Amino acid sequence: MAAPERAVIVGAGLAGLRGAEALREAGFSGPLTIVGAEPHLPYDRPPLSKHVLAGAIHPHATTLPHGLDADVDWQLGIPVAGLDRQAGTVRLADGRVLPYDRLLIATGTRARPWANPHEGRLSGVFTLRGRDDAAALRRALEAGPRRVLVIGGGFIGCEVASLCRSLGLPVTLVEPGPTPLARVLGRTIGAFIGAIHAGHGVDLRCGGEVEWLEGEGGRLVRAHCTDGSRIEADIAVIALGALRNTEWLDGAGLSADPGGVDCDAAGYVLDAEGHPDPQIAAAGDVARFPHPLYDGRRVALEHWSHAVAQAAHAGRLLAGAPPDAAYGALPTFWSTQGDLVVKSAGLTEGADAVAITQGDPASGRFIALYGRAGRCIAAVSVDSARWLPAHAELVASAAPFPPEGAAADRPKGVAVFDPGFS
């Protein structure tokens, strides 16, 4: 009697967990091992920069519920070190080797560290990616710092800055771009959101850059900017984006680089020659795949809903029950920044126009619809989530841009702007 096939999932985050559940639900009954670099069971990351930092919930409360049975072999607190596809094995950092017949790569991302390692190790310098990061930063905020410096004006940076203001802490946000969120939303919409944050007391320094961090006695005391200015602060949160965890795939003969691991339209991982490996799939932040809504352009998405949907797709695929269609769920995302809720549907990359189709940026509540080559490609709501589903339908159907007809609350029609990505 042949031994049952073995499945290994590398990555014990949201994508790894949902992939494991889908694998079981689709009928895979063989041995199942889940490997995770962190010592924790899978947990939810979005609350870390919100409720955990605010002290509203304990870090342990972020653990995700799941439907897996006790027969799952959890290998936690052990980073993965390599992949041998010829032998069908995954090598762990402690030297052990795990054989697999089906493999799901869900290693996700890690926070981009401060460029100078010595400065990055100063007491008071933090990144925010994992549960332990959030717990440590929460303790530092509770101590009542004189000022918090946030370096980077992306979603995490804006969330942390807003959280600090809600705690009554002075905060300075330094962003090299022209506005917060300019890389994701463009300068036009980024300027509106920046104005809202500034109105809440965030000291915004856009178009600037921190050159080095100064410490005294091993502790951060100030930051020096490229324009010669100094910012006195005893906490710095480095919010410069994420790095995909693909280094362990070096030498495995897969199409993988720092931008992600490539998959075909079905979800199988591609080898270095571009051929799918039917034993391996990928899901979540680390997976780069051709999205059918965007002319097959390869994208790697760091979205909660995407991790759930793609992992379920990959789990069914590896269980031998491939879905009827290629994975192509509409990307959705949300960010809570103080009392400001930003939600999106679709991808803004490549947009050549943007229109305010509901509300008014001056009021802090509006919908921005992005277009490319005369088609709707993304929609972003700012405290206007009830209008987003209808706009998401325009994006999913690649409806003409600008949309026909005027918004109900904009009787004079819809004005079209340059989104400001260049």
Features:
422 residues; 8 helices; oxidoreductase; FAD/NAD-binding_dom; single chain; FAD/NAD(P)-binding domain; flavoprotein; 3 domains; 6-stranded antiparallel sheet
Indicate the topology:
Elements: E1 7-10, H1 14-25, E2 32-36, H2 51-54, E3 73-76, E4 80-84, E5 89-92, E6 97-99, E7 102-105, E8 109-111, H3 117-120, E9 125-127, H4 131-142, E10 148-151, H5 155-166, E11 171-175, H6 182-199, E12 203-206, E13 210-216, E14 219-225, E15 230-232, E16 235-238, E17 242-244, E18 256-257, E19 260-262, E20 268-270, E21 276-282, E22 287-291, E23 297-299, H7 304-318, E24 332-337, E25 340-346, E26 353-360, E27 365-372, E28 375-382, H8 388-396, E29 416-417
Parallel strand pairs: 1-2, 1-7, 2-3, 7-21, 9-16, 10-11, 10-16, 11-12, 19-22
Antiparallel strand pairs: 4-5, 5-6, 8-17, 13-14, 14-15, 18-19, 20-21, 22-23, 24-25, 25-28, 26-27, 26-29, 27-28
Helix pairs in contact: 1-7
Describe this structure in words.
- GO terms for molecular function: oxidoreductase activity, acting on NAD(P)H.
- Its cofactor is FAD.
- Keywords: FAD, Flavoprotein, Oxidoreductase.
- With 422 residues, the chain is of the alpha/beta class.
- It folds into three domains: 7-110 and 243-318, FAD/NAD(P)-binding domain; 113-240, FAD/NAD(P)-binding domain (3-Layer(bba) Sandwich), CATH 3.50.50; 339-417, Enolase-like, domain 1 (2-Layer Sandwich), CATH 3.30.390.30.
- Helix content is 20%, strand content 32%.
- The protein contains eight helices and 29 strands.
- The chain has helices at residues 14-25, 51-54, 117-120, 131-142, 155-166, 182-199, 304-318, 388-396; strands spanning 7-10, 32-36, 73-76, 80-84, 89-92, 97-99, 102-105, 109-111, 125-127, 148-151, 171-175, 203-206, 210-216, 219-225, 230-232, 235-238, 242-244, 256-257, 260-262, 268-270, 276-282, 287-291, 297-299, 332-337, 340-346, 353-360, 365-372, 375-382, 416-417.
- The strands form seven sheets. The chain has a six-stranded mixed beta sheet with strand order 3-2-1-7-21-20, covered by helices on one side. It has a six-stranded antiparallel beta sheet with strand order 24-25-28-27-26-29, with helices on both faces. It has a five-stranded parallel beta sheet with strand order 9-16-10-11-12, with helices on one face.
- The protein is globular.
- It starts with 6 loop residues before the first strand and ends in a 5-residue tail after the last strand.
